[in-house]
Amino acid sequence: MITNLFHPLLALIFAPLMRGIINKTKAFFAGRLGPPLLQPYYDLKKLLKKGCVYSKTTGFVFVLAPVAGVALCVLCLLFLPCGNLPALISFQGDLIFIVYLLGIMRFLTVLAAMDTGSAFEGMGASREVAFSALAEPTMLFGLAALARKAESFSLTPMMHRITAEVWLTDAPTLAMVIAGLLLVFLAENSRIPVDDPATHLELTMIHEVMILDHSGVDLGFIEYASALKMWILGSLIIGLAVPIRSGIIWADIFSVLVGLIALAILVGVIESIMARFRMRLVPQLLIGACIFSIIGFLVQ
Amino acid sequence: MLDLLIIMVVLTNLRLLATSRIESLISWAGIQGMVLGIFALLSRWKHLEPDIFVVGLAAFSFKGIVIPAMLFRLVVAVRSKREADPYVGFIASNLIGLLAFVGALWLGHRLPIPGNDMSNLVLPATLFSIFSGLFLIISRKNAISQVIGFLTMENGTFVLGVGTLYYAPFLVEIGALLDILVAVLVWSVLIRYMNRAFHGITTEQLTKLKG
Predict the structure, then answer these.
(1) Which among B7, B90, B94 has the least Cβ separation from residue A299?
(2) ipTM of this predicted structure
(3) Among A164, A162, A184, A194, which Cα is nearest to A280's?
(4) CB–CB of A284 and B18 under 8 A?
(5) CA dist list (Å): A27 to A37, A53, B110, B126
(6) Were both Cys, which of A177, B55, B180, B204 would link to A296 (CB 3.0–4.6 Å)?
(7) What are the boundaries of each domain within chain A?
């Protein structure tokens, strides 16, 4: 039972670190020193100390969304295994449950954005919903492909069965699913080439637009929830891409951590060598991701 | 490994259906040719006979390097950069391609080839390549896109040929490679003439030819 707690605890502690690593990698490519590795933690600490400012037009949804975001992410982590680290709770169909927990989180963020009454945030919400409508099928098809491979609708047994031998026999399926999930990872976490987390230029923002009115503790919660979301989607990818199932708990934890650090470095490299796509091209990218996972689903 | 290469052929086909730039079409067709060459070499790596080695190497160099180079020179000569407005849009083409792949998989499982010890993806990939090639030919207006469509179709039959190379004679494969080399040569001459006569290479203008 105690081992089941390892993955959620790791996520809660190390999730913001992934952002730090991405920023450090980008700084390295740009020839800068960059912010300290632990800067996301300092930011969270700073934000949690501050008070919140609420506009008069906002109602209870605006206050609810950040808290609910963190709560839903933590809930999601309870159902999420990574590699050989089992989930705390698992049942048949939990993979669909996780996708919809993330969906509820997005729904609340969108409602909070609409609640501010700002046309600008409404536009961001519209973009976010349009793009995630395209990203969701990719994720579901990818997970369905894995469910078909592992003959289980529950993530924990599924991750147990995806071992190095499966990679030898079914590399195409796994590679296609990972490619699809990686693109979803970039889109859902609003990274380049879909969205640029560093910009605050009105015309190009997707996710950042929606949280412009949040401040203080609320903003801190949103930042923490998005770090957790990055960990959640990342650990799905790493569970597939790093097929180390040693059974020795420390080796498994180590492989998961190294995998996620490598993923963060990969994202940093992608952000350094690519430009953000024009908004018009984003649906094409996401349809491409969907095609990857559908092919992974079909080719078995 | 071989399955991954076949999937790469399928993905390059989808990429060809999704792109509008002629340069990108040619490069991806070239990449597909290189993948096919590597596929031919790796498919019998353990008992690599000289004839298979020659087929693989010839495919890699002709399909991957020579023909794309010829087409690139043609693009420079006729100054055609883009597929301006195709009959079927790019996202729609991709979705149709995906449906076609589903169909090809279904058909491939229903038509087992006797003696095909390679992979059960060979036949679907073949059918899908032939379909994408035909689809490129009927849905694009630019003459160079149509040449690429023909090359894609030929690449499909090459997958099948290599997939069953124990039984297909070596001369047929080499003959087909030389044939498409000559075909591309003839096309590049024709397209240059077409460009001179019509000041463009959209195939719509060919209807004006009727006397």
Answers:
(1) B7
(2) 0.82
(3) A194
(4) yes
(5) 11, 33, 54, 46
(6) A177
(7) 2-16+44-249+273-298
